[in-house]
Amino acid sequence: MFMMRRxxxxxxxxxxxxxxxxxxxxxxxxGAGFLSLLKMHGFPLVCCNGKGTCGRCRILFEGxxxxxxxxxxxxxxxxxxxxxxxxxxxxxxxxxxxxxxxxFVESRTVEAVTDHGGGIxxxxxxxxxxxxxxxxxMPGRSxxxxxxxxxxxxxxxxxxxxxxSLRELRRGGRLRILGEYSCMNPQRRWGSDVISxxxxxxxxxxxxxxxxxxxxxxxxxxxxxxxLGGRPESIWLAGNTSMEHLLMELDTRTLGRYPFTxxxxxxxxxxxxxxxxxxxxxxxxxxxxxxxxxxxxITAGLLACGFAECEDGECRLFIDLGxxxxxxxxxxxxxxxxxxxxxxxxxxxxxxxxxGTDMIALLAEMLEGGVIDETGLLQEPFFDTGWQKGELRITxxxxxxxxMAKAAVCAGVELLMEAMGTDASRIDKVFLAxxxxxxxxxxxxxxxxxxxxxxxxxxxxxxxxxxxxxCLYGGEESLREKAEAMCRRAEVLNLAEVPGFEQKYLxxxxx
Length: 511
Ligand code: FES
What we know:
This protein is an alpha/beta fold. The chain contains 15 helices and 20 strands. Helix content is 33%, strand content 22%. The N and C termini lie far apart (47 Å). It comes from Eisenbergiella porci.
């Protein structure tokens, strides 16, 4: 009996592999990893051996729906490439017959990983990869550059950008990205959420938590310097308030409990400790934050979206969707920020490993098809078993997770508008940030009520604004001063203390 089941589940699938005009068929069992399979069949690759950090194991799924992208795919490929079917071979396993085109990147170029979010300051500036044409094919070699770091709870991303292109950016030029590096945040081993890490710090493991991140920062800086030659002019890091506190080994006890008071929200400098000379011999400067829940990553995002220099009369809204939905509204000199707990719904679904963007699209489809009603309730015959879409089964619990997250964000947006004394009809621009925002189908998000429907036509999905903001902050002193002034004048709205939040939240639970 056991043998029969095993034979059925491991029946070989046909993988048609294409490369350089040649085609061959490999047979492999369900569950075989694409990277090891391809290496075993004569497609050698020097790579990070499946850590998902080097971005060299590119494959393109042809002629059929590619597997859902995982976080490493989303860092390695642009939205357009993901739509075309590009994935990292090391992140996926054989599920059925398929055709893949092997596009392994053999040499150590700095083009491997990307998630740049340029082109958003007033809609005029842009980001471009350095083609290397001016440097004999070596992207960025001998250029003067600075390094920006986005220290996220889940991932650490770094970009080296040409210093001269930063200076040109404000005159309508394009940002030249010379090299990139990314990896998962190693603090994940203490827990994927911030609270577990704050608890670990309180248990006396603060030093290890900080060292773990310093190690990957050093690795990233060394890799970029190795590719580009020389040393960066400076290194600028933006992270949420907890990540920056953990990196600096600041006391986090007041950060994890009411009234959630940070030790420091000013610009900080990571220099040497215990005889060391900073990370990789370089100082790293940390951008200032606004509050315990609106950190330096949001300062960077707001800077990238022009909030430090809001034109009089223009009203802008910024929404960064992750585990926390951070939001800000700006008009003239006034800036009001808030954050709403969104849970895991926007970063991989609650019970299923579905990226939040896909979950939103699926929910819109379920609503339109009558699979769920306006309250989010699964209709018969799906009520007990959930709704099956391909290999995914969406349950009532998955739906509720996203419903609560979108209600918190929508209620937060409405309260921000009220605090600013305005309404949706008078918002000029809406910037939707975060890896999530970059892939979001704005129409579908409006359909499920992620934000007030009147805003849909004014939403721009801007992707990772933290890196671009850190570049801008580091690249120009005048912008640095404006960003610091913006942080000082920012008002913070604590949603839990705003009368009417709960009522609004409950009202926005429906689709
Ligand atoms: S092997 Fe490095 S990203 Fe896949």
